[in-house]
Amino acid sequence: MSLAKLSTRSRTKKLGVVSFRTPLNAAVAAAAHCPHNFSMKIFVSLLVTASFLMGVYLLYLKKIPTAAEGTVSTQAISITGVRMDLLQIAKAERSAIGVDGHCMSMDELLTSGSMSMSRPERDGYSYTVECSGNDFTATARHAPAPAGSPFRYPNMVIDQSMQVRELP
Length: 168
What we know:
The chain is an alpha+beta fold.
């Protein structure tokens, strides 16, 4: 064999090897995505979302302002209901004084149908009405909480001024 043929043959071989390996490497590099990366991305996304929702729960729901100082947030609904009941009693009393000219007792208010309440109590609170001429005072009282309990049950009162206040 001549030197020219040998040199051409080795160049062809080298070119063939290089051109043969380059597409193979390119194909391997292009298909190098791992199928586990997609599921890991989903897992991390779910973890971040769960962490965010837990943060919202802890910051928002646990820090809800209470209806009265010293009460826990689970009592807020009950205390708000008691305040609404006292306002309803006061409105019925003002209406009774305006129409009938005298104050009514709690039983008379319930039987007259001037309120949507059906009983003089809610969640451990009992309602009473005291009349003095055309003046009235409606009171909501709850039994005191046991010693060391985190719960506080404020006693509340409303009069003709239509302002709900806590009793000391």
